[in-house]
Write a structure and sequence with these properties.
Number of strands: 5
Shape: elongated
Mean pLDDT: 80
Radius of gyration: 25 Å
Helix content: 40-55%
Number of helices: 7
Oligomer: single chain
Largest sheet: 5 strands, antiparallel
Length: 181
């Protein structure tokens, strides 16, 4: 390789790094988000999750392909082993709904079986400021996810109580029976 080819290769690598580098707006926003959450910014910028009200969020930036956006990925949980097909069908059906276009899409992280919701926030159109918009999304969806978890837990507990009641003899019937003479 001659000197000219080497310089061109270096220039291409430097250009690629510049294109892949997150925008200043993204970096400033995520530093502010980390500060408000009381966590270090570097892990968040590195794609590590941050816990918000019991829900893990990851932030992603796509460099030059999306200079003004942040993509948030919210971990929901594992695909239920006993109901995989129905669960995946519901996720795919939801992804076609109008709500998905506005609030985010569900998916499964390859090779993990972990269900996530993925949504993009346009940092230039955030009325409460970029960091405020990211935090609002995180807190709103974390609260909604906790409500869903609570509802599912209550449903499981209710099903258990109803099952136990169905298995127990009916006390009302037993008290109404007259002894035979």
């Amino acid at each position: 390789m001659d000197a000219t080819t080497g310089r061109q290769a270096d220039q291409l690598r430097n250009l690629q790094r510049a294109l892949d580098r997150p925008s200043d707006l993204y970096l400033e926003t995520m530093h502010e988000v980390a500060h408000r959450l009381g966590v270090a910014a570097e892990p968040l910028l590195g794609g590590h999750g941050v816990l918000v009200n019991g829900t893990v969020f990851h932030a992603t930036h796509y460099g030059a392909a999306d200079r003004d956006g942040v993509t948030l990925v919210m971990e929901i949980g594992a695909i239920p082993a006993d109901n995989t097909a129905a669960c995946l069908t519901q996720l795919l059906e939801y992804n076609l709904s109008p709500q998905a276009a506005l609030s985010g899409f569900y998916g499964v992280v390859p090779d993990t079986g972990v269900i996530v919701m993925r949504a993009r926030i346009d940092l230039t159109k955030a009325g409460e400021g970029p960091a405020g918009a990211v935090l609002h999304y995180m807190k709103t969806y974390a609260t909604q996810m906790q409500n869903v978890r609570d509802m599912l837990k209550a449903g499981v507990e209710l099903a258990k109580v109803l099952h136990e009641q169905a298995q127990a003899p009916d006390e009302h019937e037993a008290s109404n029976q007259q002894p035979k003479r």
